Amino acid sequence: MVARLQFETPERIAQRFWKRVNKEGPVHPILGTRCWLWTGAKATQCRGQAGRYGTLKVLGISTRAHRYAWTLFFGEIPEGKCILQVCKVNECVNPAHLFIGTRTPNG
């Protein structure tokens, strides 16, 4: 496992990510842009909340696909914050549909 992690450059991780994104999802009625749907593995729960959030391994650690998309486009996620989807589509990784929030509005 250690040998494989040595080859996990940011570019290779991004390539693996993009292979599993379908940019032909439903159009959000207000934003007017399509959801980019994660087609890879999905977790059945996210911190106790039921849902089918996309997941991928980044340097051996399971990461939610929408959180990875945020860091890919915008950088680090502030500690204690959540990445939420305006479209309410758990599989969506479109950066235009993502925003930083807390668990309160996500409930």
SSE order: HHEEEEEHEEH
Which structural class do you get from the secondary structure elements? alpha+beta
Strand order of the largest sheet: 3-4-5
Return Rg in Å: 14 Å
Approximate shape? globular
Distance between the termini: 37 Å
Number of helices: 4
Structural domain count: 1
- The mean pLDDT is 87
Stretches where pLDDT is under 50 for at least 5 consecutive residues are none
Proportion of strand residues: 25-35%
Description:
The protein is α+β, with helices and mostly antiparallel strands and 107 residues long. It has one domain. The chain is built from four helices and seven strands. It has a three-stranded antiparallel β-sheet. A two-stranded antiparallel sheet has the order 1-2. Strand 4 (49-58) and strand 5 (61-64) form a beta hairpin.
